[in-house]
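Appendix B. Chain record.
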Amino acid sequence: MEHRYLGNSGFKVPALGFGAGTFGGQGPLFSAWGNTDVNGARRIVDICLDAGVNLFDSADVYSNGASESILGAAIKGRRDKVILSTKMSLRAGEGPNDVGSSRHHLVRATDAALERLGTDYIDLLQLHAFDAMTPVEQVLRTLDDLVRAGKVRYIGVSNFSGWQLMKSLAASDRLGLSRYVANQTYYSLIGRDYEWELMPLAIDQGMGAIVWSPLGWGRLTGKIRRGQPLPAGSRLHDTAGFAPPVEEERLYRVVDAMDQVAEETGKTLPQIALNWLLQRPTVASVLIGARDEEQLEQNLGALGWQLTAEQVKRLDAASAVTPPYPYYPYWNGQFSERSPVAV
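Structure tokens predicted for this chain:
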């Protein structure tokens, strides 16, 4: 297993991690993702650890906390062999303070996550969304206190915009507080918005990307084809309303290009999608998910080989979109040839 630095933290994570959103199966969204129980989770953890995948990511809202509880049970007795990552700040209860990134909520949510995970520290704690009602200074002071208390080792964010993230990083520098080192972000061959602002920011500020939904919310599995109905077993029947949007013709164009590469390499479409991501700037780890062992083994096959430069170029061209202003002039070199990223 290849290991990569998580931004400028000095801490290494595996190139592939496992997203535990399939554990628990509670609620309309997560029941469609999967319903892995403790025994199934133990088997998945076994396979992951054998392959060198020791980063496991969850969140307090995944199946109303059941994902964390099942993950905690699955790693019991081998805590020292795994990297635990979880997220909080989305609504996780009915009370007025059961949401956001206030000191009240973050402290209580962290203690609850520690109990569910069966551990006394979280390797990577990420805010699941930006809280505009709580000053970033208070948020960062609280997170810094959690780090100093030994409950958290590294901190990160998810679903932040560029200005929200940069404002937070600047506050950390100004006040001498723990700094975000990870951005858990949506990124895929059919979702390349990360490249417009967040990737250049990550390069400039030394942050590592942890990629969620690398298969474009299940659209890049090879089961969705031009002119064919959505397969009966696709989770998109139940989760399309939650999915990042994509224009249909662009999806088919990307799948067509992936089919060509699959024929040349003998690899599956998910393996090609994952391998493409592993070659992108700032990507520290790509989270794979699986409802069963077969899916997991297939996703692990994204490692140990590499797309050629020509194949990457073709996939880039098929998946490209023109960024909105003010990004597109930098994209095509009109404003500067010294952009922080060339993609």
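Further analysis of this model is presented in Appendix C.
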